[in-house]
Amino acid sequence: MEVPVPTTQKMRSQLPSYLPLPSPCTCPAGSVLLKDQIPEEQYEELAQRRAKEFQQYKARTTSVLSKLLFAAPNSPLQYPIQGFTVQPLTTTHIPGLALYAERRSSYKVSLNVSKGILSTEIPAEGVTVQGDGQTSLIMESSSLLTLNDLLAKVSYTSTVYHIHTGDLASFKFENHEAVFPITIKQPHVPVLYDMGKDISSHVTIITKTFLRYTELKVLLNSIRQFYSNIEVIIADDSFEPEHITGEHIRHYIMPPAQGWFAGRNLAVSQVTTKYFLWVDDDFVFTENTKIEKMVEVMEAVPELDVVGGSVQGNQFYFSILYEQGEEMEGGCLYRKSKGKFHSLPGYPECYLASGVVNFFLARTDAVQRVGFDPKLQRVAHSEFFMDGLGSLMVATCGQVSIGHQPKTGKNPDAARYAKFRASSRSDNTFKLLLHFFKNHLKCIRYG
Question: Which residue numbers delimit the Glycosyltransferase 2-like domain (predicted)?
Fold first, then answer.
């Protein structure tokens, strides 16, 4: 009688051998266990759907190039250990192949691949070649010089079209074997931004408004005090939208109450400059709101994607600590307030972090790739940086600041707005359930 194999064991047996087995992650004290937020009668079905989706995610994001390779301590084989990249379905010469061995009556080497074919030139007299144009190529000669000349002319052609994958080549001589990676990648077409000399050609200011036209008009007036020509994009999901007019203002009306992230997505989708500056609709520009300083940092450190400032002296930033965890349980995530890594080279007043305050300059194309989840309507900010972890390089620079408008009570929609602004218990539960499935988390802690 066959003994049933537990689900986790089945999944582990199907993992590629080059991937390390997932291990449990540790939930810090104070973490929310996300499975506890799910009704018991729904958990099993939801967990199965999540497991299936996670396997598809891994298939898209893991590669044979993840295999851990070790260089032999003493090998007569020479080969490219890193950086050999080919275009899909394209013949490419393999650089650096050679054999260094003591004198023998005959020298025999073999090369094997799985996602392509190997070929070399017509061999000279005294050399035998087997498998030319196949996945396994064997070459033998009594002359080491002639063999190395032939090895220098070996080419690889991928037979699998994929925009980013890889192959592993096995190179053997007697009892010596070396394995080296071949990256198969479709090159990107560059997307460049033609930046003029004026700040308005560098940056677009974007904001999202909802039932706060009084505050929005104060913000717009303050922007024009310091930046008369800069483009401002407004995403508006108010119930009875007012028409906001003015030079260099684009006002987009949305269906009512779509939420903060839906508005951000709309606004960012319309940006045509290299950078955008995100501001809330109740902020106010001051003499310290120097967008140029933020652009200077981003241009000097092109690896950066987001630079945050401070809001009325509050330089809020955080780090995200994440462990992947086991297949069926998911990962552990800890968002640590005031967590940072180290100062930004060349800018000691700036620090690298995982997320920043809700006033930041961002690289448009980088943020468009991550996006803002429109399912999150009221409880959202850290979630964007969680989704961008591993994709966005983030820094915080407190020397650039923006003001926050005082609450004056002049907004006629203030009471109505407050009902939507405050998050309910169901909003928070929904967010935790989203983290359970979408982010494959076991637990989360805010500290």
Answer: 204-318
* Token pair for 157: 């052609």
Q: CA 155: distance to chain centroid?
A: 33
Q: Which amino acid is at 276?
A: F
- Positive or negative: CA dihedral 351, 356, 360, 364: positive
Distance of alpha carbon 271 from alpha carbon 265, whole angstroms: 10
Q: What is the Cα–Cα distance from 290 to 292, expressed in whole angstroms?
A: 5
Distance between CA atoms of residues 375 and 352, nearest Å: 28
- For residue 340, give every residue at least 6 positions away whose Cβ sits within 8 Å of its Cβ, in sequence order, or none: 317, 319, 351, 352, 353, 396
Which residues have CB under 8 Å from 416's CB, separation 6+? Answer: 211
- How is residue 325 annotated by DSSP? -
425-437 vs 40-61: helix crossing angle, rounded to 10:
50
More confident residue, 127 or 16: 127
Contact status, residue 245 vs residue 219, Cβ threshold 8 Å: no
Phi, psi dihedral angles at 322 (to 5 degrees) = -135, 130
Number of Cα atoms under 13 Å in the Cβ half of residue 52? 5
Which H or E run contains 308? strand 306-311
What is the DSSP secondary structure assignment for residue 64, as one 8-state letter? Answer: G
Distance CA 10, CA 15 (A): 9
Q: Is the pLDDT of residue 148 over 70?
A: yes
* Dist CA 94 CA 151 (whole Å): 9
Residue entry with tokens 């650089």: 95
CA–CA distances in Å: residue 364 to residues 72, 103, 345: 45, 60, 23
Mean pLDDT of 279-287: 96
Question: 58 Cβ partners below 8 Å, 6+ apart?
Answer: none
Q: Which of 243, 228, 316 is nearest to 280 (CA)?
A: 316
Q: What share of the chain is helix, strand, coil (3-state, %, to 5)?
A: 25, 30, 45
> Structure tokens of 288?
């310290």
Which band of pLDDT confidence, cut at 50, 70 and 90, is reported for residue 309?
very high
Distance CA(426)–CA(384), nearest Å, equals 20
> Average pLDDT, whole number, for the chain?
89
Q: What is the pLDDT of residue 15?
A: 38
Q: Which amino acid makes up residue 20? A: P
- Fill in the DSSP letter of residue 66: G
**Sign of the dihedral defined by the CA atoms of residues 417, 423, 425, 429, in that order:** positive
